[in-house]
Amino acid sequence: MSVRFGVLGPLRVHGGQAPGPAKHRTLLAALLLSARVQVPVERLMSVVWDDRPPASAESVLRVYVSALRKLVEGIRTVPGGYLIDVDPEDVDCHRFETLVAGARQARAAGRVAEAADGYRAALGLWRGQALADVESSVLRRAHAVPLEELRLTALEERVQLDLWLGRGAEVVGELRALVGAHPLRERAWVRLIEALHQAGRRSEALGAYQDARRTLVEELGLEPGAELTAAHQRVLTGAEDGPPPPGVHELSPGGGQYREALDGGEPVDELPPDISDFAGRQDALDWITRTAAVGAAHEGAVDVRALAAPVHLVLHGPPGCGKSALAVHAAARLRLPGGRLYAALGARPPGAVLEDLLRSLGCPDGAVPPGLDERVRLYRSMTARKRLLVVLDDAADEAQVRPLLPTGPGSLTLVTSRSSLAGLEAARAYELGVLGRDEAVAMLGGVAGHERVRAEPEAAARIVELCGHLPLALRIAGSRLARKPGWTLAHLAGRLGDERRRLDELSAGDLAVRGSLALGYRGLPDPERRLLRGLGALSAPDFAPWVLGADLEPLAEAGLLQSRGLDEAGQERYGWHDLTRLYAAERLAEEDGGAAAVLAARAGTILERTRQARTSLLPAEPGTGRTEVHPPAQAPEAAGPGRSQDPWGPAGTGTARGASLRTGWLRQESRWLSAERRFLVATVADFYHAGLYEAAWRLAFYLTPLFELGAHHDDWHTATATGLDAARAAGHRHGEALLLRGLADLHLAEGRTDAAAAALRAAQPLVEGLELARLTLRLGLVQARQARGTSQRAEAERAFVRALGVFEEAGDRRGRADALRALGALRGDEGPLNESLAAYQELGDPRGEAEALLDLARLHLAAGRHPQARDCAERRLRVNRRLGDRLPEAAAQLVLAEIARAEGAPGAAVDAARAAVETFTAYGDRRNAAQALLSLARAAADRQDFDGEVDALMRAMGEFDGLGDEHGKAEADQLAQDARRRRGQRI
C-alpha cells in the first residue's frame, strides 16, 4: 500500500506539491502527525513558533492554514483548532507504526520469516531523518525522537530475526553502520557480535566487543550490560547465539528435559555489571543487609545463610535517584546458593517476564507454558527448592510484581519502583532520596575525574546544586565533562544555569533526565497527567492538595512527587525534585499552552483563602469597613452594651466553649499561613510572571502581617518588591499605596526610619480618604520613632490626631483603635490606651488587644506602678501564648524583665531577658535580639554577674555592628565601660 504523505525524511506530498515556506511545512507536518485528530490552536502556535508565538500568532496561523488549503485537501476547521481528514495509513509515520505492530504479532506467533518481512517493509518507508526539513524543535522533540527510537528498535528486532534465520553474514555491514551512527546503543553491538559470530568471524566478534566496551567506558563511565556481556561469553565459549525463535521446541511439561531444568544445573547469575564509580548510599546498603538478616562477609561479599522465609525489599524513590544502581550494587555484595536473577520490568506484563525468568532457571523454550497461571505455578515450583536472589527493576505496581516473587525459604527479592508498593504483602520498603552534598560531589568526581572536581570546587558544588543532587543527572553531567576534556566545570555550570535548557543539557547518549521522567509521566492516567502539568505552573518547592483542589497521592505513588509529611497546620505536604518541576512546566507549555491559564483558574481560591487567614492576624481590610473578624460559620453580632468583654469568646457569648473555639480558629489560621508561607511567596512571583498583576499585588499585600509577625524580612522584601512591580504594571494606584505602606512597615522594623518615611510620602499622593489616614498614622509613628525634641513629637501627635478624626468621622473602629493607641503611647496617657484596649476587645481582635496591653505595661512601668505594669504584661503574655505568637511573646518577656529589675528581682529579670534573647535569635530577628541582650546585660549587672554581663554586651555589640546600628553599638560599648569600671572598683 502506497502512502500519500511522508514525514519520515523531508516532508513529501505524493501527487502534489509540498509547501515551500518553513512555517507552512511545520504546520502541515503537525496536522499529519495527528491525522484525523483535532490539534488545538494553542498547540499549533507553539509548534509553528517554537514556544515563542508573537502576539499576532493566531491571526497569522489562519493565513497559513488558508495557504495550505490551496495545496492540500482535507484541512478542516473544528472547534478550538484544526485537523487534516486523511486516512492515517496514508501517512508514512502511521503506516510505519502499523507495520511494526504487525511484525511483532507475527514474531510472537512464531512466524519468523513473515515477521522479518514485516519489519523490512516498515523500515523501507524511511527516507532519512524524521521531519528532516521541518524547523520546529517542539515538533521534533514530541514526534521525531520517539519515531527515531522506534526505528532503531525495529531494526534491531528485524536483525534478531535474520540471525535466527541464519542470515548473519548478510547483516554485518548494516550493523556496522548502525553502531557507527549509534555507538552507545548496547543492543546494536550485541547484534553485530552475534552476526560476526554466526558468520564464523570470531576474531572480529571479539574485537567488536572490545570496541563496544571501550566506547561505553570512555563515553559513559559504564561497563557493558548483561546482554552484551553474555554475547561476548558465547563467542569465547563457542556457544550458539541467542535463544531460538518461538515454536522450535515442542517438549511436554512432563518430559525429561523439563524435569532436568527443574531439579539441577549450575547456579544462574544474570546480574548486570556493578557500577565502578558507585558512590554513597551507605545507609541504604546497611538497611538492605540488616533487613535481609545478613551473615558474615565472605571474600568481599555478604553470604546470606539463615533466612527462614523469602524476604522482599522495595527500594522506591523519584526518577533518576539511582534505585537500579543501588539494587545492582547491593546484589553484587550478596551471595545465595541458588544464584542471582535480574529482570527489567518497566511496562512489561508479568507473563512475558516469567517467560524470561523460567528460561534463565533452565526451562527449555518449548516447555514454557502458554498461560500466565501455568507460568506462575511452574515458577513457584522451580524456585521452591532454591535460595535465589532476584532483582526486579523498575516495577510499575504490585500486580506486576506478585507473580515474580520466588517462594524458596531463604530467597531474597530486591524490587525497585517509583512507588512504595504499599499493597505488596510482607514486603519492607526504603525510600531513596537524592544524594547528600559530599556523596554527590564524590559521584561527579568518579565520572568526570576527581582532579577536575578538586580543581574547581565552587563550580562542582554549583553543578551538584543544579542537578538537584540527582544521581542520573550527576552521571550525565560527569559523562559530558569526561567527553569534553577542554570544558571547565564552570562552563558546564553556566550551561546548566539556564532553566529553559537544563533538561536539554542533561542528556548524554541514551541517558537523559527527560526520558527518565517521561517514562513515569506516560504511565499516568490522563487525569494525573493533567494534574502534574497543572503543578508545572508553580515554582514553589512544596505544596498541599488544596492548591489544585485534587488528591496528589497518585503522583506520589508514581514517584513524581514525594510526601513531606504533615505540616504545622496538619496538611499533607508534597514536594518534588527541581528537574521534575522543569519537566512538568515543559509538558504544560507543550500540551496546554503554559502556566497562565492554570494560575488564572486557581487565583481566586488562593487569594480568598489567604485573605481569610490574614484576617486572623489583622482583622481589618483597608477601605472596606469590615473591621470585625468572625470564624467560619459564626454569624456576626451587633455591638452593644451587652457584648462580653471576654477577648476569648465569640462576641456576645461570654462562654468558655466560645473562647476555646475562637482561640482555636485564630491559632489554626495563623499556623496555616505559616505553613503556606514559602508557597505563597513563590506564587506572588508566579502570578507576576504569568501577567496576573492584580492577583500578584493582592497576594503580596495579604501576606504582610504574616511577615511582620514572624520577622520574615527576606520574604517580606521579595514579595513586596514583586507586588509593587505588579501594582504598577496593572496601573492600580491604591494597590501601589498599600504595598508602599507595607514597605514602610518593613523599613521601620529594620530601624530605617528615613526609608520608612520616604515610602509613606511616596504613597500619599496615590490615595485619599481612609487609606490616606492610615498612611498619616504610619508617618506619625515614624516621626515619633525619630523624635529627638518637642517639635518632632508635636508633629507626630498632630498626625495621630488628624488620622483619628478621619477614622471617627468614617466610623472605622479599627482605625480609631490604632490611632488612640498611638496617641496614648506618645503622650504617656492611660486614657486613650484604655479606650483602644476596649475597642480591640469589642472588635474581637486579640492581637490588637495584646499591643495595647504592652503599651499600658510600659506606661505603668515608667510611672513606677509596678503591680499594674506586671498585670498588663502578664495579660499580654497570656494572649500571645494562647495564639502561639512567639515573637510578640518575646517582646512581653522583655518588658517583664524590666519590671522585675524595677521590683528588685534580678534573677527573674535574667530569666525573662534570656527567654526573649532565645526567641528572637531562633527567629532570626537580630535587631530585637540585640536589644534583648542589652536587657540581659543590665539584669546580670544587678546580680553582680560580671562574666554574664560582659558576655551579653559583647554579643550585643556584634549584632549591632552587623546591622550597622552605630547608636546601639555605642550604647552597648558604654555599658561595657561601666561594667569594667565597677569591676575595677571592687578589686
Automatic annotation (TrEMBL):
<feature type="region of interest" description="Disordered">
    <location>
        <begin position="616"/>
        <end position="660"/>
    </location>
</feature>
<dbReference type="Pfam" id="PF03704">
    <property type="entry name" value="BTAD"/>
</dbReference>
<comment type="similarity">
    <text>Belongs to the AfsR/DnrI/RedD regulatory family.</text>
</comment>
<protein>
    <submittedName>
        <fullName>SARP family transcriptional regulator</fullName>
    </submittedName>
</protein>
<dbReference type="InterPro" id="IPR016032">
    <property type="entry name" value="Sig_transdc_resp-reg_C-effctor"/>
</dbReference>
<dbReference type="InterPro" id="IPR001867">
    <property type="entry name" value="OmpR/PhoB-type_DNA-bd"/>
</dbReference>
<dbReference type="GO" id="GO:0003677">
    <property type="term" value="F:DNA binding"/>
</dbReference>
<feature type="compositionally biased region" description="Low complexity">
    <location>
        <begin position="631"/>
        <end position="642"/>
    </location>
</feature>
<feature type="domain" description="OmpR/PhoB-type">
    <location>
        <begin position="1"/>
        <end position="86"/>
    </location>
</feature>
<dbReference type="InterPro" id="IPR027417">
    <property type="entry name" value="P-loop_NTPase"/>
</dbReference>
<dbReference type="InterPro" id="IPR036388">
    <property type="entry name" value="WH-like_DNA-bd_sf"/>
</dbReference>
<dbReference type="GO" id="GO:0000160">
    <property type="term" value="P:phosphorelay signal transduction system"/>
</dbReference>
<feature type="DNA-binding region" description="OmpR/PhoB-type">
    <location>
        <begin position="1"/>
        <end position="86"/>
    </location>
</feature>
<feature type="region of interest" description="Disordered">
    <location>
        <begin position="963"/>
        <end position="987"/>
    </location>
</feature>
<dbReference type="InterPro" id="IPR005158">
    <property type="entry name" value="BTAD"/>
</dbReference>
<dbReference type="GO" id="GO:0006355">
    <property type="term" value="P:regulation of DNA-templated transcription"/>
</dbReference>
<dbReference type="InterPro" id="IPR051677">
    <property type="entry name" value="AfsR-DnrI-RedD_regulator"/>
</dbReference>
<keyword id="KW-0804">Transcription</keyword>
<keyword id="KW-0238">DNA-binding</keyword>
<keyword id="KW-0805">Transcription regulation</keyword>
<dbReference type="GO" id="GO:0043531">
    <property type="term" value="F:ADP binding"/>
</dbReference>
<dbReference type="InterPro" id="IPR019734">
    <property type="entry name" value="TPR_rpt"/>
</dbReference>
<feature type="region of interest" description="Disordered">
    <location>
        <begin position="237"/>
        <end position="259"/>
    </location>
</feature>
<dbReference type="InterPro" id="IPR011990">
    <property type="entry name" value="TPR-like_helical_dom_sf"/>
</dbReference>
